[in-house]
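INTERNAL AUDIT FORM
Audit reference: QA-55
Scope: verify that the stored structure record matches its stored sequence.
Auditor: D.O.
Record contents follow.
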Amino acid sequence: MKKVPSETYEKYIAGISDISRAISSDLYLEDILKLIVMVTAKVTGVDICSMWLIDRNEKPERIRLKATQAIDPEYVQDRSLTMDEGVVGYVVSRNHPLIVENVLEEPRFKEKEMAKKLGLVSMLGVPLQAKDGKVIGVINCFTSEAHVFSQTEINMITAVANQAAVAIMNTELMVQARVIQEELETRKLVERAKEIVMQRRHVSGEEAYRWLQRKSMDSRKSMRQIAEAILISEDL
């Protein structure tokens, strides 16, 4: 990897623009993450770029590999680390970039065999920081030759990482909004179906709801599907 010349800023600006467009797009999170690692690798010229995100659904929380532009199956396999494990955990816990000149000589680097196989030498890890300052993950950039990352490169990758964090958080908020909207729509449908069951079977609201639940369990269909079927039959 060569030192970043001034003209590389054009690629950098183009990369930031690509990620910015993703913020307002309808892309799924998986597609957003793939775009980010591809843009980062293109802008910096590194050999491998990977992204790790904190999985807050796990207790205790773990950091999980979510995307990379590498095609080697050994690198793209599902992997996760504890919050203080390896160089990734170090970057997350300290919320600060980490430069490793030789990953094979770095005690915190846990994947030395993989590094040997893929010919990885130097590494830069940068935290993905949301607007509120909270770290949501890490971007790792690897080179196949010994390389000392310049402050310019660190600043560029940090800027990409910050923009990436905005795109990720925005996508997650959109997903949450869709889930909430679907839940509200389902509740409305179930409520309407419950009223129909109450009228047809001359039962209370609680009994009608339990009847819907039993139908859902017996037919192995969701409450929404049962409710929609009842509403359709009512319209016929």
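Auditor finding: record pair retrieved intact. The longest helix spans residues 151-201.
Action required: none
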